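Issue 218. Parser rejects a valid record. Input:
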Amino acid sequence: MNAKEAAICGALIALSWIVHFLMRFTESITGELQAAVSISVYCLIVLLIRMSLLEASVVGLTTGVVLMTATASPFPLANIPSHWAGLVSCKIIADKMRGAEGELRPSSVSIAVLLATAVSFSVFVLASYYGILSFPDLAKGGAGVTEAVLDGRLTFGAFVTASLFKVGIPTMASNAVLSPILYSIASRGMSRWTTA
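Output the parser choked on:
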C-alpha cells in the first residue's frame, strides 16, 4: 500500500466511524443491535485498493477498534472480530470476482458487500451474545438486552432470530443497494486523485 492508498484507507475508516456513529439511533428501534451501513463504506477500502490478506487483516482490526468507539450495541468489543471478518471476507470475495484488469462490475460489488455484511453480522451476533455471558462487566445495559441474556430470558436462538429480522436483513439489503453507488463514486474520485 502506497502513501496515497494509506490516506484513502484512513479517510474511509474515518467516514465509516461517522456513519456508524450516526446509525446509533437504530439500536433504540431494534432493542438489540444497530444497523451497520458503515460496512458498505469500509468495504470500499478493499474494493478500491488491491492489498494482501495481511494488510486487509490489519485494516480490518483497525476498523473494528475504531467502530467500537462509535457503537450503541450492547457488547462493543464484538465490533473488533465482526468488522475484521467483514473486511477480510469482502476482500476475498471481491478478488475472486475481479475481471482481467482488476475491475469490478456493480453486481460483483453488491454481492461482495452483501456477503461481507452477512459474515460480519453472524460474527457480531455470536460475539455479542457470548461476550455478554462471558464478560458481563464489559457489556452496556441498553434496552435490557444484557440483563435478559444474563438471566436466561433471552436465548441464543431468540437473540439471533430477532437480530436477523430487525437488523441483519435490512442492513444486508441496504448495503447491497448502496455499495455499487458508493463504489462508482469513489472509484471515479480515486482515479482522478491517484493520477494527479
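Fixed in the parser; the record now loads. Helices lie at 3-22, 25-30, 38-48, 53-68, 79-97, 106-134, 145-150, 156-195.
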